[in-house]
Amino acid sequence: MDEKQTVQDLKDTIQSFCIDRDWDQFHSPKEFAISISKEASQLLDHFGFKLMAQLFAMIEDPS
Questions:
Q1: What is the largest CA-CA distance in the chain?
Q2: pTM of the shown model
């Protein structure tokens, strides 16, 4: 993004990208709920079976 590009320009680009791929067929409440759940599960994988000290260490040094 540069100083001449607007948020609306980006939204239009994304909308065109989705239309070109016929992705609207997948944009239903059910599909969104499934996608959110899957992404949350992936995030939780990083926290499972770790002590708080280990989690804070991960935050301090994410490498």
A1: 47
A2: 0.52
Q: Distance between CA 18 and CA 56 in Å, rounded? A: 38
- Those residues whose C-beta lies under 8 Å from the C-beta of residue 16, and which sit 6 or more positions away, are none
The two tokens of residue 10 are 């980006």
Residue with tokens 């239009």: 12
Structure-token match 């939204």, residue found: 11
Whole-angstrom Cα distance, residue 38 to residue 40?
A: 5
Taking only the tens place, the pLDDT of each residue in 3-62 is 788 999 999 999 999 899 998 888 899 998 999 999 999 999 988 899 999 989 988 987
- Are 58 and 46 a contacting pair, CB within 8 Å? yes
